[in-house]
Amino acid sequence: MSNPDSARRGRPSLTALVSVVLMLMANASAVRAQTSEYPPTGYEVQEHFLGGEPVGGHSSRPIRVQRTEGARYEWIVIGPQSEAAAVLRAIEESGGRVIRTSELDALGQTQHIAIFPSQDAYDRTVAALRALAPQSSMALHHIFGFAQSTGNPRIYAPTLIGDAAPGRCRVSGSVTIGMIDGPLNPDHPALAGASVRYETLVDSHNIPQADHATAVAVLMVGQDPSGLLAGFAQGARLDAVAVFASREGVEEASVERIATAIDHLVGRGVHLINLSLAGPQNEALGRAITAAAAQGAILIAASGNERRPVVAWPAAAPEVIAVTAIDAARRRFRMANTGAELEFAAPGVDVYAARTRGAGYVSGTSFAAPIVTALAARHMAQGAGSADAVRAALRGSVETLGPGTRNTDFGYGLVRSGGC
Fold first, then answer.
1. Which residues are catalytic?
2. Where in the chain is the domain with CATH 3.30.70.260?
């Protein structure tokens, strides 16, 4: 026969259960209070630095942060070169450590990569930067990814944007398109007749596949007598900088490399830059973008493919032209991010594009962005010399999609070529 007292002792009392629930709620509130000012706007953080430890929730595409020795998360500060000494002082006197520094000479900026031993050291640095280096921005050293997806075969892009036939429009060789992407195969047959400058900022031991960048490059400047791989801005020069590395099978680009690539292109006088990559909001990257735009750079980027009501960065930066993808029926790509920052839509679902070798069908906002960039190059060849002028030219021939003049699904609508 069982002992009633023993049975009662084996069950937790109501008072004990209430105490546990209250304790868990208090702990959750403490974590929320501790992290409320840190997660990037619109994205849930999976791996986020607080005193060297990851905290936060999960998302369909987790935010990743560059790590250094001891698995500590890195932070990046970008600011005017005149504030570089003050930034170094703010970090080191607050208990942090700068592990490397590089100059973005063309942008007039310096980038510092730092680590912090504790939350307190980070907090002191934030306060010191506000006082000593107010024009410098610090953010987690985020890792960005390609803005691509997969899909089923279809060929329709030239007709949808209003070109008479694939490859009919050429651009003056005086226009150079900058591209910040992954490794490129400049020996692809569709690039054989194009003027391509290529450099990589990635160690040779960590080079990923060249499919993505080769596709993006050929969509802009590819030359193919059959028309299948003819770029939308044939004749333009291409200046490509590879920033993506492969780590544990994942293709990734750090803010440091992206900012350095922007600096290299601006330093070489490139005024039109395509960014088919996506990640979280990053104030340090925003500082580099603002500096580039101040020198006349026109930046066009993919909105990202996380199926979120939040446009990814760098597309969401105010200086950048954000592009989404649509299919042959003018429907928005089901995985495309949406948001008020969107400006234009372009074919990006089942687009026939180059690969490292050969070709195939691809989907993603990654492949819509270069079509808009190519049309921007056409307008620049016709005299549009600023971001405002390019925006106005693109809007001048746009086909409105969705409600109103501009909406969060398509921006102003589908870009149209308006002729060569």
1. 181, 212, 366
2. 49-140
